[in-house]
Design a protein that fits this description.
Blueprint lengths: L2 E5 L2 E4 L9 E6 L2 E7 L2 E7 L2 H13 L1 H12 L12
Antiparallel strand pairs: 1-2, 2-3, 3-4, 4-5
C-alpha cells in the first residue's frame, strides 16, 4: 500500500488494484478513514473531527492528483507523491 502523502501525522495511502469506487485511506494512529475521491466523501471509518476536516480539505485541493494516482494504482503502477503541507 503506497503512501501518497503525509501531514500532521496523517498518512494518505492507496492499495494497488483496489476495488471501485475511487478512494484512498487516511490513517491517523489507530484511526482509519476510507474516503471517496469523486465525490469527496467519507465512505467508512472514524477519526477525530479535526482529522476528518483536514483529510477532506486536502482531498478537495488535490482531487485531480488523487484521481490520477487512483488510475496508476489500478494499473499496478507507482502513484505520484502529493506534496505535504508547508
Amino acid at each position: 500500500m503506497p503512501t501518497i502523502s503525509r501531514f500532521y501525522g496523517i498518512l494518505i495511502c492507496m492499495f494497488y488494484r483496489d476495488h471501485a469506487p475511487p478512494h484512498f485511506d487516511a490513517v491517523y494512529g489507530k484511526h482509519e478513514l476510507t474516503v471517496g475521491i469523486s465525490p469527496i466523501v467519507i465512505l467508512q471509518g472514524s477519526a477525530p473531527a479535526r482529522v476528518r476536516s483536514m483529510v477532506l480539505e486536502r482531498a478537495a485541493i488535490h482531487q485531480q492528483e488523487l484521481l490520477s494516482d487512483w488510475d496508476a494504482c489500478r494499473q499496478g503502477s507507482e502513484p505520484a507523491k502529493i506534496a505535504p503541507l508547508e
